[in-house]
Amino acid sequence: MTVVAAVARSTRVRPLCAADLLAEAVARAGLWERLAERAHDDPGAVAVLLTPGASAYGDPATAVSAALVEHLIDLLHDRGYHDVTVGAARCGPDTWLAGPRLLDACRRLGYGGRTPQDNAYRVVDLSEEVEPADFPDSAVLHGSGMARSWLEAGFRINIAKNSTHPEFGYALCLANLFGVLPQDDKHHHYRARRDGAEVIVDLLGSYPPDFHLIDAVVSSHGCAGSQVGRPLRTETVIAAPDGVLADLVGALLMGVDPVSSPLNARVLRDRGLPDSYRIDGDLTPYQGWRNPPRSLVEAVRRLAPDGRAHRLFSIASWHVAPNAAEVTDPALARLSRLLTSLIRAADVNPAAAATLCTMVGAAASASSTVRAWRTGNAKQDIRRRDVSLAVDPGAYTHEDFDRITGLLRPLETVIDALPADAWQMRWQHVGHSILFGCERTVNAPYPEFVRRVNISRSISYMTDYLGGRVHVVSRDAQGRPTRQIERNLYLAQPNYMAYSGGPPIDVCKLESVDYGEQRQRISWRTVHSPNGSAEYDDGSVTFLPAGGGERTLIVIRVRQRFTLPLTWQVIRPDSRPKLRDPLVQDSYQRFFTRTLDNFEAQYEGRPYRIGRPWEEFDDAEAAELPTQRLTEAARMIRTVTSQVLTAPTPPGRLGPDGFWHVAPGDIAPARSPLLDEFRESLRPAVVGFWQGLREAAARDRRSRQAP
Fold first, then answer.
1. What is the pLDDT of residues 53-105, one digit of tens each?
2. In 10 A of CB 251, how many CB atoms?
3. Which has more confidence, 60 or 170?
4. Cα–Cα distance measured from residue 171 to residue 160, given in angstroms and rounded to the nearest whole number
């Protein structure tokens, strides 16, 4: 079936109201035919769910028009679809607002539960009544739930506001899908913990909308139209059964490249456009439309989504109308007023635009520097990553896995023939890749070692492992994986590459695992690198008995070729062997020495993973912002000032003779309330320090007693 994207526009020659634009767009895009196919001659049995963008705090310019949604409800009722629900969820700065409930906010936007034609509908919160969802184990949303309303809907219609976005460039149907996800803190769960583009790809793969609409009757443009409303009458409604196609049309009408948004570019790459489609309508760009400055978009993208600076900008750039909610973080409220005022001014004032871009760029540079420093010096503070598999398991056959060992054999023959250096490591440049091999004999009985150290998880034992996902394709009779696909993330290698913009190593591999009585081996071949950080990262890990089985030999052999940052590409270390060879030797010696240490730590039961898992972050800690610390500091300063300026009252009483009369019981040691508060605030830290010290000492004793 040909997918049609319909563009209904009002012109001087053919003026149309919003209701007529909507009716024309949905009819030309085939909404009624698709609903009829789902209804099977019984439209009353189809539960229709509408999900309009409703994340507006007193600023209707950033939300889908409730009148337009209610007109769609009337059109549905006219055709017999009486079971209609409006599903809403927030995407805004709820972490520092104590506003009304979501349903109350929807009523303020115009969703009263009954249309002008007296047709009733329900309004539900998509963050409530969450039930388990059947996301596959290859999905980044595996284990997550969805609202019952979304899961049980017979037909889902996604309705987006036509608006710009300071990071994506534009935010239409795909961006609106963040609102249907159940977690209240969208930024933490779907932008920082997980990659937002992977989240949308997995949602479209498992529980997609059936139809998409873009409300462009009154759009919001400028530097941050999705957060700071700047209305512009564009008199357009876009409709399509496919969200990627609808967004492509919307971007063309804005006059921007559809793949300029990293969110849309990823979905386009992974899912693509429909096999057969056409665009029905005029694509002349909107008159008077202003997109965000390219320098602002690039600066915001440099703010890592899992960092505090990105979260601070994302929250502070939302415009909140006075009296729309109670502000719980005064420092953030002041920053928000400053930032939103600057965003409004930047749309018309080049000096304000330059100031805004400079501020965000400086924050991005500082954030990148802190992240690079943590990569080499504070790895325990780095958050691990939740990712999808990023490849389609069905695209590979068993023969693809079984060929891996044969493909690696010639390379391993070369590696074994290379002379060993002072650290018993072998390496050699071949073309633009590196062949490397190392081994270590550990003082661990082979049967016990292979019982404690799972050969199929060898990749996760390597140093600087940030996270990944494993999809098992086949198992042996004992339930052990024999063929699997794995995605792995590591810190930038060598770590100092992070200072020059080096990305994390991100690779997807096919893996074959063999379990012999006298040998266990895992072999892998790289098939994809989502961020383009590696061309080759192939290799194997082998466990062999040594010393008659009383010890274990670990053998690692790899072929690798990683993408250098732009700065290093200019230096061209490959053309300078005297510079290149010491750097390569040192980096490989450090990485694989620590990797072999990790294998021993796994056997001994000692912790070795870097970073903090997301499960350790509760909602309060995840939502904490630097401005909250600033607010607490200001409160402490006010307390100190008030105590210093307050004159102390002397003990005793003033007698009629004009003298102070003090009894022995009147004199008591003065205690400062501030010191009491300070002591109580330090008590948890002191108690926690000694408790942690005792636990560390206990772990050391247990590790020495381990066999």
1. 876 555 778 889 999 999 999 999 999 999 999 997 666 655 555 555 667 77
2. 20
3. 170
4. 8
Measured CA to CA, the distance from residue 215 to residue 238 in angstroms comes to: 7
Phi and psi angles of residue 125, each rounded to the nearest 5 degrees, phi first: -95, 115
**What tokens were used for 473?**
């394709």
Output the CA angle 619-625-631, nearest 5 degrees. Answer: 120
Q: In this predicted model, what pLDDT tens digit does every residue of 214-225 receive, in sequence order?
A: 999 999 999 999
How far is the C-alpha of 244 from the C-alpha of 271, rounded, in Å?
Answer: 9
Task: Provide the residue type at 174 as one letter.
Answer: L
Tell me the two tokens of residue 601.
């730590």
pLDDT band at 125 (very low <50, low <70, confident <90, very high): confident
Contacts of 471 (CB under 8 A, 6+ apart): 137, 138, 389, 393, 484, 485, 486
> 594 is written with which tokens?
């620590």
Residue 321 dihedral angles phi and psi, to the nearest 5°: -65, 150
Domains of the chain, start order: 3-285 (3.40.50), 393-610 (3.30.530.20)
Residue 488 burial (C-beta neighbours within 10 Å; 0-12, 13-18, 19+): buried
Which of 389-403, 539-553, 559-573 comes out lowest in average pLDDT?
559-573
Alpha-carbon distance 356 to 316, whole Å? 13
pLDDT band per the 50, 70, 90 thresholds, residue 287: very high
The whole-number average pLDDT for the span 371-380 is 87
Residue type, 154: G
Residue 388: closest CA among 455, 473, 488: 488
Q: Report the pLDDT value the prediction gives residue 558, as an integer from 0 to 100.
A: 95
Q: Are 457 and 513 in contact (CB under 8 A)?
A: no
Phi and psi torsions of 357, nearest 5°: -65, -35
DSSP per position, 88-142: E---S-GGGEE---HHHHHHHHT--SB-TT--B-EEEETTSSEEE----TTSTTT
DSSP 8-state assignment for residue 464? T
Mind listing the pLDDT tens digit for each residue in 436-459?
999 999 999 999 999 999 999 999
Report CA torsion sign: 371, 376, 377, 379. Answer: positive
Which segment of 164-178, 382-396, 549-563, 642-656 scores lowest on mean pLDDT?
642-656
| CB distance 8 to 281 below 8 Å | yes
Length of the chain (residues)? 707
Residue 488 has pLDDT above 80, yes or no: yes
Count Cβ atoms within 10 A of the Cβ of residue 155 and give its class: 0-12 exposed, 13-18 middle, 19 or more buried. buried
CA–CA distance, 335 with 627 (Å, rounded to integer): 9
DSSP 298-313: HHHHTS-TTSHHHHHH
List the structure tokens of 423.
């650290």
Query: How far apart (Å, rounded) are the C-alpha atoms in residues 305 and 229?
Result: 23
SS3 assignment, position 147: strand
Burial class (CB in 10 A: 0-12, 13-18, 19+), 14: exposed
Per DSSP, what are the bridge partners of residue 155? 48
SS (H, E, C) 564-632: CCHHHHHHCHHHCHHHHHHHHHHHHHHHHHHHHHHHHHHHHCCCCCCCECHHHCCHHHHHCCHHHHHHH
Tokens of 247: 């967004």
Confidence bin at 622 (pLDDT 50/70/90): low
Of 234, 239, 356, give the one whose Cα is nearest residue 289: 234
Integer Cα distance of 574 and 660 in angstroms? 88
**Element of type H or E holding 48:** strand 48-52
